[in-house]
Amino acid sequence: MIPFMHSIRTLTPDTVARVRSGVVTALTCAVTELDPSLCESIPPGRYSIHIAGPSGILRRVHFRDRRASEPRSGAASLVLRFTDSAAMARLLGGGKGRVLPLPISLNFMKAGKAFTASSQRVGELTAKRTFVDEAEKRLVTELLMTAALRGVAETAAADFWTASKSSAMPDGTVEISVDGAHLSGWVRRSGESWTSGRGVPPAGPNARLTFADLDTAFGLFTGSVAALNALGRGALSIRGRVPMIQVLFPLLDRFGEIMSWGKPGEDAA
Question: Is position 113 within any domain?
Answer without folding.
Answer: yes
